[in-house]
């Protein structure tokens, strides 16, 4: 009798979940990938490797398809011609798409988010204009120099950790105006790393599954770091760290192949500013500005190419009114998804998409923010990434010293200028054995 009661209870719960979270598809809705378990749908398969899942689904289901996972309907658009509707259509909404994730990861209530987001977005965009960003560059350089010197002149470790540590200390002080001693910085770094690693899943899971992420939030969010500060800090570092890593690794790897040696030399010889930066004394602090970057177009192309290759897996909008795409009608409530990662691997817009080719960015006008067609890493429409200029500067600065070391190695065999560089460059920076641990 007890077993019958248990089975009936489980059966009732499954039906309830299906009625609560299941949605009736529109007659012209896109093909749907679900599962036999209500609510969970294809969550298990999709969660193992989302990007691989998207790649396999497109040729099978077409350019527009829906994935049911963990109570959500995720509708992916993969054709470049549909991207404009994704970014500009009045039938989709950015705020509604991210509100739940903001609540789950930063404990910001729904009411507070909708009330403050427009004002916060306006303020952040205003503070990250070229004029204001250039004012921050000197401070960022000073902070970064100090923490780079604390690492010593030699050693080994994971490249990702080096970048994370150096950037975190600088950004905490600049964004939150809250300097940390080395001991507290290391403790904060450990907590923030856990928070960062759990961010992707924590932003999507229901509250009852968020105990681990909640502990990380509690450890980080004290009276000096309010919830918005935490979210802003994460936004400042989330993409800058992996893109910086990719930028440095490419500049190190290309020198191993003779056919790519010219990439390093072009990047470094693009302007005399870099030579001036290299020819400094040990006691001096290096200060660079966004103006310096404007005079080094090839370095900027390298950064943009690294961003292209390390673009986020997906960006989202919420469908608020029936949306027509191709021959389909996407129902309200669906999460409209676009994958910059795969968009940037479309050979129609990026020939040899897996190759690191900075020269492809010669066709863009980066000074006027005219990017290559098909590039969507910064979003589009009225909700573009407000910190894209700041990100460019951080990636350029973090990658400066490792790339400078690469230049020194190349010029040592090619140019008498190496003799001058060898006498004036702090060798500790060039010979530090920081590397990415192989997995």
Automatic annotation (TrEMBL):
SUPFAM superfamilies xref list: Cytochrome P450
InterPro entries: CYP450_sterol_14alpha_dmase, Cyt_P450, Cyt_P450_E_grp-IV, Cyt_P450_sf
Molecular-function annotations in GO: heme binding; iron ion binding; oxysterol 7-alpha-hydroxylase activity
Keyword Protein biosynthesis: no
One GO term (biological process): bile acid biosynthetic process
Signal sequence bounds: none
TM stretches of this protein: 6-22
Cofactor(s) the record lists: heme
Residues reported in the UniProt entry to bind heme: 385
Keywords linked to the UniProt accession: Heme, Iron, Lipid metabolism, Membrane, Metal-binding, Steroid metabolism, Transmembrane, Transmembrane helix
Pfam families registered for this protein in UniProt: p450 (PF00067)
Annotated family: Belongs to the cytochrome P450 family.
Name of protein: Cytochrome P450, family 39, subfamily A, polypeptide 1
Species assigned in the record: Cyprinus carpio carpio
Organism phylogeny: Eukaryota, Metazoa, Chordata, Craniata, Vertebrata
């Amino acid at each position: 009798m007890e077993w019958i009661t248990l089975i009936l209870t489980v059966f009732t719960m499954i039906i309830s979940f299906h009625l609560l979270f299941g949605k009736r598809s529109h007659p012209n809705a896109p093909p749907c990938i679900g599962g036999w378990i209500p609510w969970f749908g294809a969550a298990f398969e999709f969660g193992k490797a989302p990007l691989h899942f998207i790649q396999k689904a497109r040729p099978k289901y077409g350019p527009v398809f829906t994935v049911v996972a963990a109570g959500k309907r995720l509708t992916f658009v993969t054709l470049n011609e549909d991207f404009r509707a994704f970014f500009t259509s009045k039938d989709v909404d950015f705020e509604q798409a991210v509100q739940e994730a903001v609540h789950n990861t930063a404990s910001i209530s729904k009411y507070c988010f909708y009330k403050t987001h427009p004002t916060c977005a306006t303020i952040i965009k205003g503070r990250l204009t070229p004029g204001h960003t250039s004012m921050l560059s000197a401070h960022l350089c000073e902070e970064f120099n100090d923490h780079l010197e604390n690492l010593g002149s030699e050693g080994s470790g994971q490249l990702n950790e080096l970048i994370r540590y150096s950037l975190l200390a600088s950004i905490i002080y600049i964004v939150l105006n809250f300097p940390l001693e080395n001991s507290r910085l290391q403790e904060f770094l450990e907590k923030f790393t856990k928070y960062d690693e759990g961010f992707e899943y924590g932003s999507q899971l229901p509250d009852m599954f968020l105990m681990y992420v909640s502990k990380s939030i509690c450890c980080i969010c004290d009276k000096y770091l309010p919830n918005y500060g935490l979210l802003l800090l994460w936004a400042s570092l989330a993409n800058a760290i992996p893109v910086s890593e990719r930028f440095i690794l490419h500049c190190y790897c290309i020198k191993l192949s003779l056919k790519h040696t010219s990439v390093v030399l072009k990047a470094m010889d693009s302007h005399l500013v870099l030579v001036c930066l290299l020819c400094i004394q040990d006691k001096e602090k290096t200060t660079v500005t966004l103006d310096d970057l404007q005079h080094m177009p090839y370095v900027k192309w390298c950064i943009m190419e690294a961003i292209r290759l390390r673009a986020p897996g997906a960006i989202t909008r919420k469908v608020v009114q029936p949306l027509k795409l191709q021959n389909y009608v996407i129902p309200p409530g669906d999460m409209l998804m676009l994958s910059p990662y795969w968009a940037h691997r479309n050979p129609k817009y990026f020939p040899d998409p897996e190759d690191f080719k900075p020269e492809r960015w010669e066709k863009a006008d980066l000074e006027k923010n005219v990017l290559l067609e098909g590039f969507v890493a910064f979003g589009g429409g009225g909700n573009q990434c407000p910190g894209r200029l700041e990100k460019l500067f951080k990636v350029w600065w973090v990658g400066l010293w490792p790339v400078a070391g690469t230049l020194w190695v190349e010029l040592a065999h090619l140019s008498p200028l190496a003799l001058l560089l060898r006498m004036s460059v702090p060798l500790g920076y060039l010979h530090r054995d920081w590397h990415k641990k192989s997995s």
